[in-house]
Amino acid sequence: MPRAGLNRNRVAEEAAVMSDEVGLSRLTLATLAERLGVRQPSLYKHIDSMAGLHRDIAVHAKRALGEVLARASVGRSGPDAIAAMSHAYRDWAVTHPARYAASNLMPAPGDVEDEAVSVAAIQVIADVLTAYRLEGDDAVDAIRAFRSTLHGFVSYETAGAFRWSADVDVDRSFDRLVRGFIAALDSWAETSGHTLTTHLTTIGEDHDDRT
Amino acid sequence: MPRAGLNRNRVAEEAAVMSDEVGLSRLTLATLAERLGVRQPSLYKHIDSMAGLHRDIAVHAKRALGEVLARASVGRSGPDAIAAMSHAYRDWAVTHPARYAASNLMPAPGDVEDEAVSVAAIQVIADVLTAYRLEGDDAVDAIRAFRSTLHGFVSYETAGAFRWSADVDVDRSFDRLVRGFIAALDSWAETSGHTLTTHLTTIGEDHDDRT
DNA sequence: CAGAGAAGCTATTGACATTAGCCAAATGGG
DNA sequence: CCCATTTGGCTAATGTCAATAGCTTCTCTG
User: Fold this and answer.
1) Any atom of strand C under 7 A from CB of A2?
2) For residues A58 and A130, which has the higher predicted lDDT (pLDDT)?
3) CATH for B56-191?
4) What's the CATH code, domain B1-47?
5) Cβ separation of B210 and A210 shorter than 8 Å?
6) Are residues A140 and B173, on separate chains, in Cβ contact within 8 Å?
7) Spatial separation of the C-alpha atoms in residues B22 and B103, rounded to whole Å
8) Is A23 left (phi over 0), alpha (psi -120 to 50) or beta?
9) Which of A6, A72, B47, B73 sits in a 20 to 30 Å window from A94, CA-based?
10) What does the pLDDT look like over B56-73, one tens digit per residue?
């Protein structure tokens, strides 16, 4: 009968911690409740559903990642900012693998809060890339390329996919990847014939797997 | 009691098809059995477990993807081969999203068959990149970079993450990404101070999430 | 044509998420 | 301070899965 003093944030926070320990897919309400000193159905006073809990983790994660990226790039610009942001991104993802995975979940269609933090995080990246004077479609291409590059590397790394040839330093590989991306950006900013000035707009439907 | 004529391959194949339709995480033994005209527990005559079924899907997928990549790069070399391979990779992944997700699952530690097909697929990439005379650690860096680049883009695309600014052509973005990677490779092959000649070797432990 | 092994089936179990319905603890207005 | 309301927690029960046990029926081989 004494109260545990839970609330939606506390639950999401502990869920995030637990997820980072055991993996997002092994986050279970039974053990989460146990960790919070409460019976399993009691969690429903603070969450809607498992999916809702995942969403809460995702929203927190997106916010945190966005802040990390912003902090890393403040005061820098151009290649310097890109490099700093890249390393901050990777560091955060590696130390919070499940939160990172959650941060890549697409917002549900009418979820304005989730949409907002998603856009905000991407906007940090967009702002940094603007240093290359890319506009319109070119900027979108660059943002997609940058996000893809980082996400691919980090998700392989957190999945342990680089244990092939484990003796080769992963830090060095990442460093070269980032340098390579910057080089690519340079070499392509010249040749680019851009047009429109489209930008981050609306959001689509649901997602699925998250591989 | 007429027999359904199932076997391990047939089950894995139908599982792969169903996964591509509904998503790997929504692959369920109940509906899989139904699709195969059999009761759910009967599947266990052909599979070990859900995890085993995922492994079977993964092995098939890795083999298929490896063949697709090999076919795309045969007769080509250098940037041409990389571009062809990249587009084949993306096309296959987009048409088989769940198989693609499965293809990124790490092999379990003693699973020699899975390890073999995994290495084989990566080896196709390694062979193509060899055209740049990258050796040892440099080659490993390049392979990691290439796989990361493709995987990041494709997994975002299949997750629907590019619906931000949906009006910008995704094909074009991919094309530029690939060109950018090639440019990066060029610009870095020059500056590279390499050393060892390490290569694809052994495999590590288990995996987890597959974001 | 017997009989062994493979391939199905029904019945059960156990782990989860989720819902219903009850009761106690905070809380806040008189 | 006191009671009414809201809030948070609990037990019990349900439904969906994966997984196991144990029985029956094909099927194929000697």
Assistant:
1) yes
2) A58
3) 1.10.357.10
4) 1.10.10.60
5) yes
6) yes
7) 17
8) left
9) A6
10) 999 999 999 999 999 999
Find the radius of gyration of the CA atoms of chain B.
19
What is the spatial distance between Cα A173 and Cα A176, in angstroms, rounded to a whole number?
A: 5
Structure tokens at A116: 């907002």
Q: Answer whether residue A200 shows pLDDT above 60.
A: no
Concatenated DSSP letters of A31-42: HHHHHTTS-GGG
Residue B1 Cβ under 7 A from any strand C atom: yes
For residues A135 and B19, give the distance between their C-alpha atoms in angstroms, rounded to a whole number.
39
Looking at residue B191, what is its pLDDT? 63
- Domain A58-191, CATH: 1.10.357.10
pLDDT in tens, B119-159: 999 999 999 998 888 888 999 999 999 999 999 999 999 99
DSSP string, B103-132: HTSPPPTT-HHHHHHHHHHHHHHHHHHGGG
**Distance from the A174 Cα atom to the nearest Cα atom in chain B, whole angstroms:** 8
Sign of CA dihedral B190, B192, B193, B194: negative
